[in-house]
Each structure stands twice: as structure tokens, then as C-alpha cells.
């Protein structure tokens, strides 16, 4: 999994009825775009995440087209 600043990190809901959590990558802390990432959620909260298999990266160009 590789990301750049400005990409979205989507963490899919694990339970029926739980919504996906979408955050923006504000810092790539690993080498070559690899995790961990510092992300910012829509409410302004920031966290350091090492995404698991329930996550996907939406690259900036992909989500700008939506």
C-alpha cells in the first residue's frame, strides 16, 4: 500500500451498518509512500495509522474525478 499527501485513506466498516471512515493523508512517515501515515479526519482529529486489510487508498486524482 502506497500513498501520497492528499490521498484519502478509506477504512471500511467491519460490522453491518457501520459506515466507512474516510480520512486525508497529511504526512507519509514511511519510505517510498509506505505506512505509517498521519491522517486527518473530517472533524479535525489526527491520528497515525498503519492500515490493515480493511483499508484502501484513494489516490488524489481518483477522488478529484468523483
From TrEMBL:
Gene3D superfamilies named among the record's database cross-references: Domain of unknown function DUF1918
Ranges where the record places region Disordered: 41-66
Domain DUF1918: 1-57
Superkingdom to which the source organism belongs: Bacteria
One Pfam family matching this protein: DUF1918
Protein name (record): DUF1918 domain-containing protein
Amino acid at each position: 500500500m502506497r500513498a501520497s499527501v492528499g490521498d484519502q485513506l478509506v477504512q471500511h466498516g467491519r460490522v453491518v451498518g457501520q459506515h466507512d471512515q474516510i480520512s486525508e493523508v497529511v504526512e507519509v512517515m514511511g519510505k517510498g509512500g509506505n505506512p505509517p501515515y498521519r491522517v486527518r479526519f473530517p472533524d479535525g482529529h489526527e491520528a497515525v495509522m498503519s492500515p490493515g486489510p480493511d483499508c484502501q487508498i484513494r489516490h488524489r486524482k481518483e477522488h478529484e474525478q468523483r
